Amino acid sequence: MPKKIPMRQCLGCREMKPKRELIRAVRSPEGEISLDFKGKKPGRGAYLCPDPACLARARKSRALERAFSAQIPDEVWAGLEAQMQEAPKEHG
Ligand SMILES: [Zn+2]
Questions:
Q1: Ligand 1 centroid to 85 CA: how many Å?
Q2: Are 46 and 68 in contact (CB under 8 A)?
Q3: How remote is the CA of residue 54 from the centroid of ligand 1, in Å?
Q4: Which residue from 72, 70, 75, 54 is spatially nearest to 11, judged by alpha carbons?
Q5: pLDDT tens per residue across span 3-49
Q6: Beta carbons within 8 Å of 86's beta carbon, 6+ residues apart
Q7: CA distances from 76 to 7, 33, 83 (A)
Q8: What is the Å distance from ligand 1's center to 59 Cα?
Q9: Of the candidates 48, 39, 37, 45, which has an alpha carbon nearest to the alpha carbon of residue 12?
Q10: Residues 81, 85: Cα–Cα separation, whole Å
């Protein structure tokens, strides 16, 4: 058995993946939603694959809204998508 790796579920594809392979979406105490590539931002977190497709699925299923108990405006989704495009690719 491999060493214990912290696993988190992607809100898009619902797969369990090692935490460090996922991007943390965070809702700050002020209610601002952003992507957290370093896992250090304060606030409530949710996890997504570094894949715009998973972001789109999370949007469609409203999983992120549920995780944050908040409405996510279109411009925030657009911003998250833009941040997702810039996600550092660490695979390969
Ligand atoms: Zn995913």
A1: 15
A2: yes
A3: 5
A4: 54
A5: 889 999 999 999 999 998 999 999 999 999 999 988 889 999 999 99
A6: none
A7: 26, 7, 10
A8: 12
A9: 48
A10: 6
d(CA 35, CA 31): 13
Type of residue at 4: K
Q: Ligand 1 mean position to 77 CA, how many Å?
A: 16
> Using CA atoms, how far apart are residues 81 and 84, in angstroms rounded to an integer?
5
pLDDT of the residue at 61: 97
Question: What integer is the mean pLDDT of 52-76?
Answer: 94
SS3 of residue 42 by DSSP = coil
CA distance 8 to 23: 10
Neighbours of 47 (CB within 10 A): 23
Ligand 1 centroid, distance to 14 Cα (angstroms): 6
State in Å: Cα 50 to ligand 1 middle. Answer: 8
